[in-house]
């Protein structure tokens, strides 16, 4: 399938991404279901919901389609830098059924001065909403996102896909779309 959308790509802010990793990890430290998969989804929803509700993503990082759902393209290199800098350690926790959960453990507090109050409130709301879910449940939720569905494996998911819906158009929406197509010279059937 693939997405070939042209959209303005937000500028990445690596320092803000690092602080967001630390913030999420700190807030989820007591969640026994918090591991790498859940971290990826909280990051994804934080950036995409901020784009939709606040006008721009929190970190501007690119997210790609992976089998377990969307994930930041540069998460691993950034985590390696943080490991080398002594900001985090990674802990492997054995789970029932022989699975291993990879947990990020902070070695320093996040610097929240780079975030707006609205950004922190949005992240807190997402953490609370996703706290009850397992990694598998949160992954399944992300698999319903149109951007993830439409993207090919490894392809970047454009932020603008947060506005797409799988719901059918209402007759009024369809009529308005036809009017706009005529107005802007876009062929339609």
Radius of gyration: 18 Å
Helix content: 40-55%
Biggest sheet character: 2 strands, antiparallel
Apparent shape: globular
Strand content: 5-15%
Summarize the helix and strand pattern as letters.
HHEEHEEHHHH
Indicate the structural class.
alpha+beta
Number of DSSP strand runs = 4
Strand order of the largest sheet: 1-2
Determine the number of helices (DSSP H or I, runs of at least 4 residues): 7
The end-to-end distance, rounded to whole angstroms, is 22 Å
In the predicted model, the low-confidence regions spanning at least 5 consecutive residues are: none
Give the domain tally: 1
Mean pLDDT: 91
Q: What this model shows, in words?
A:
The chain has 189 residues and is α+β, with helices and mostly antiparallel strands. The protein has one domain (14-164). The chain has 7 helices and 4 strands, in the order ααββαββαααα. It has helices at residues 14-27, 36-54, 75-84, 117-130, 135-142, 146-150, 171-183, and strands spanning 63-66, 69-72, 88-94, 100-106. The strands form 2 sheets. The chain has a two-stranded antiparallel sheet. Strand 3 (88-94) and strand 4 (100-106) form a beta hairpin. The chain is globular and about 60 Å long. The two termini are 22 Å apart. The model has no long low-confidence stretch (mean pLDDT 91).
């Amino acid at each position: 399938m693939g997405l070939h959308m042209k959209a303005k790509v937000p500028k990445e802010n690596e320092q803000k991404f690092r602080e967001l990793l630390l913030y999420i990890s700190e807030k989820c430290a007591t969640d026994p279901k918090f591991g790498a998969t859940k971290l990826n989804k909280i990051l994804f929803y934080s950036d995409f919901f901020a784009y939709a509700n606040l006008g721009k993503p929190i970190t501007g990082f690119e997210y790609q389609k992976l089998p377990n759902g969307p994930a930041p393209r540069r998460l691993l290199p950034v985590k390696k830098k943080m490991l080398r800098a002594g900001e985090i350690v990674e802990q492997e926790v054995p789970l029932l059924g022989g699975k291993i959960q990879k947990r990020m453990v902070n070695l320093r507090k996040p610097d929240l001065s780079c975030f707006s109050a609205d950004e922190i409130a949005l992240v807190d709301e997402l953490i609370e909403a996703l706290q009850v879910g397992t990694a598998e449940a949160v992954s399944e939720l992300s698999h319903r996102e149109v951007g993830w569905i439409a993207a090919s494996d490894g392809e970047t998911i454009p932020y603008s896909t947060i506005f797409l819906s799988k719901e059918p158009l209402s007759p009024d929406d369809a009529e308005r779309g036809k009017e706009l197509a005529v107005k802007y010279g876009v062929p339609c059937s």
